[in-house]
Specification:
The structure is a homodimer.
Chain A (H helix, E strand, L loop, with lengths): L1 H25 L6 H8 L3 H7 L3 H22 L8 H17 L5 H12 L4 H27 L9 H19 L4 H18 L8
The structure holds a DNA duplex.
DNA sequence: AGAATGACCGACTCGTCGGTTTGTAGTATT
DNA sequence: AATACTACAAACCGACGAGTCGGTCATTCT
């Protein structure tokens, strides 16, 4: 009976992975359940045996895949105890690198879905916003800690800095989709570095 | 015979204005031609008398409405000869204010459509990208001029700064859609001010 | 007045998509 | 061996949406 459950979960997992891939590529409303099923060579019956609806399916994708990916790509990497702005730089440099190679980076996936569901599906929006909040809260606390540990200027506004970083990151991803992603990444990172330098603590505790 | 043309253009204009409104609110693929027609109390026949297809209709909206709005909201306001960063601040402060009141601001409209059409409709993407390019080229040249006129540090990377401003603006609009738009606008503008201060010319020519 | 044309109506086609229902091969249970 | 349940398959339903088409009616031209 553990075997049973394993099979069930394997199929659901396959559906979710392919689902996220297609939803990301074509948009949620532009991807039919059949598109996903065809790719997996499964039938409608299989889908509605495991999920209540397309919406339910998508929410499970958010909870199972999106949340974890955002965690591992945008949250965990900045949680070390080294110099705060170095950590942030490395994290976002890395995240943008996946974008250059046209892979899914999950900060952008998030931004895409938010603009797709905003004002259209409050239920899904709530789940997406929860992820944004987790990201934001974490970034704020990382910056706060940077202040305590002497890396960041004590006068810096942690909420403001976090918002600015998140905004510029999500925005540059939109601008990288068509034109010279690699050059734009480089330019963007240079400016982000300047910005982070400007809020570093000038008289670090020795 | 001029009367004729006037009637034609009036109807087409009404369709486009309502079309943009609904496309913005619900997305392009999520808005049916009938939705627009019902709101205007017009029929399918009227629509396909004036436009070849839904796509043709949308492209005309871009050329007639979007381009001009971006011009008047994001390009013209920064073209004065006062202090460059002041002009930029005022322009984006103003653009975000419309966002706070849930109106259409056209930087965001642009970002929304880009993420909706990216990878799905190359033809429309081309038109949207053209607007982005116009915006970018203009912002770069404004910063260049700011350097010549002594407002901006000569060592600043104009392309980088422009990209950073555009990115952060488009990004913060996404983050303003659900949570505390007014507070986020304030925080964002503070950080933008800091960033612009950091590239101002420290020894202005007297 | 009669013909032509511009602007529009509304019914219809044809395809798509979310969701339902019925059936069934394999596996586990009793 | 009979039963029941899991994990699907396949056919189907109703809606909705883009685009078509024959027709209408007022205005303009001749």
């Amino acid at each position: 009976m553990m075997q049973k459950n394993l099979k069930r979960m394997a199929t659901m997992q396959r559906m979710q992975v392919t689902g996220l891939e297609l939803f990301y590529k074509n948009g949620y409303y532009n991807t039919s359940v059949d598109d996903i099923l065809n790719k997996l060579e499964l039938s409608k019956g299989a889908f509605y045996y495991h999920y209540e609806s397309k919406e339910d399916f998508f929410i499970q994708i958010i909870e199972n895949l999106l949340v974890r990916k955002v965690y591992s790509m945008l949250i965990e990497p900045v949680e070390g105890h080294e110099n705060t702005s170095d950590l942030i730089m490395q994290c976002y440099d890395n995240a943008l690198e996946t974008a250059v190679h046209n892979e899914m980076d999950f900060g952008f996936v998030l931004g895409n879905f938010i603009s797709e569901f905003n004002g259209r599906n409050p239920k899904i929006m709530k789940h997406l916003n929860d992820i944004i909040k987790i990201w934001e809260v974490n970034l704020v606390s990382v910056i706060q800690r940077g202040k305590f540990e002497g890396y960041i200027d004590r006068h810096a506004d942690a909420e403001g800095v976090a918002l600015f970083i998140m905004s510029s990151f999500m925005g540059v991803r939109t601008l990288m989709v068509e034109t010279a992603p690699s050059a734009r990444k480089y330019r963007f990172m240079s400016q982000l570095r300047l910005f982070l330098k400007s809020i570093e603590n000038k008289q670090p505790a020795v």
